Amino acid sequence: MRSPRSRFELACRIGAFALLGWLLGTSVMPTPGRRVARASQTDVEAKLAEWTRLPSSVALHGDFSTTPSAWAIDWLAALRHSGHAVTWSGSPPPVALTAEATADPRGSVRLSVAAPSDDRVSLRDDASVIDSVHVSNLGGSVTVPLLVGDVRANVLGQIAIASPPDSVPLKTIVVVGRAGWEGRFVVAALEERGWPVVARFAVAPNVDVTQGAGSLVLDTARVAAVVAIDTVVQRFGGAIARFVRSGGGLVLAGASSLAPAAAPLAPGAIGTRFRPAVLPRDTLDLGSTGFFPVTSLKPDAVPLERRTGGIAIAARRVGAGRVIQVGYDDSWRWRMAGAAGSENAHREWWSNLVSAVAYVPEPAHSAARTSLPSAPLALLVDRLGPSRASAPAGIGRAAVDRRLILAFIMILLIAEWASRRLRGLR
Fold first, then answer.
1. What is the pLDDT of residues 176-231, one digit of tens each?
2. Angle (nearest 5°) at CA 383 between 380 and 384
3. How many domains, the chain?
């Protein structure tokens, strides 16, 4: 049985090693009882240098209503990797912005923004305000002809920034059909807009006329899209399906989807041509003389325009390519007999159709030059983790002075040593 003095020595040794183990553990796993340094998004950037000089025993906490700049988030992430406990709270608006070059000879840019529903997004570049978008279903889109510098989206004070994309090289548009007014004015509209066009018109059985300088080989290296005016598209055979599945675009106008090579690619079948009961006597508009309704939509097809007689335009993806089916087969009447401005409207309408399906190679994006990312909240969560309701409980209590703990360990060891020496032991 141990004597009281030996039990005292054992208690001193156990206490010393327990305190030593606690010191080692808290150096590896920070305890919640440490001091905390706090900042908001307005002063966190000014405090980063000061925080860097703090010992790792000090926890860092930010309270953000909007996210800090990207470099500040990176700095906080570096402090987290250096041993600091870095947390944040708040609810910055989730915003994301992209700027994509469209397939357009005039070099327009499509701005797509995601933000909370029912909020209004303000868009501007380095020159001026571009537009404002009311967000519904979490997103909105605006196409602008030109960007001056970076574009910014502002939602409730939260800013996302995207750099302007590089322009995309234009490839050939192939127009195929029987020689007639529709094909002639489709080619004219696209060429006037600036598209390089190669046309293949059938003038007699097995007799075609080619217009324009370029290749009729359907390959995405040369051709961006095919516009089929009618069933003459069948002369491409299986090449049209291979072209679309590899990323090429296809516009099927009028009855062109009746061609066996085009039918499997079309968003739907076509019904009996709808003709309005009364035709206008003076000016014509698109569809004034009727159209072929798109019926029996495939499961992955999306209707884009509906009229009294049915669906006028539908679209679907086929492989890597896109197909738009248009029921109108005499849009040239709109151009020739429409109201003032109909010529330009006809040109814009056909260019937008082709732009929506045209194959566009992925451009090489310029290096980011901004201090804020295009999705700032996503970057914050990725680098620092999700938001906390507040700083961790107990994090504000005063830290225990480690020098006192070390002094107490030394007292315990000296007490054990003195007790052993008084008993004649070493």
1. 999 999 999 999 999 999 999 999 998 888 787 888 766 678 888 889 999 999 99
2. 75
3. 3
| pLDDT, tens only, 72-84 | 889 999 988 888 8
Residues 39 and 103 in one domain: no
Same domain membership, residue 124 and residue 100: yes
Q: Are residues 342 and 204 in the same domain?
A: yes
Cβ contacts of 124 within 8 Å, gap of 6 or more: 130, 151, 152, 154
Q: If you count them, how many residues does the chain have? A: 426
Pairing of strands 172-178, 223-228: parallel
Contact partners, residue 401, CB within 8 Å, separation at least 6: none
Distances (CA, A) of 289 to 187, 293, 329: 21, 13, 10
Domain that holds residue 118: 96-167+364-374
Q: Residue 154 sits in a domain of what CATH number?
A: 2.60.40
Q: In sequence order, what are the residues at sequence separation of 6 or more whose Cβ sits closer than 8 angstroms to the Cβ of residue 81?
A: none
Reading the block at residue 284, the tokens are 């014509």
pTM above threshold 0.85 = no
Q: Are residues 58 and 121 in the same domain?
A: no
Do 17 and 125 fall within a single domain? Answer: no
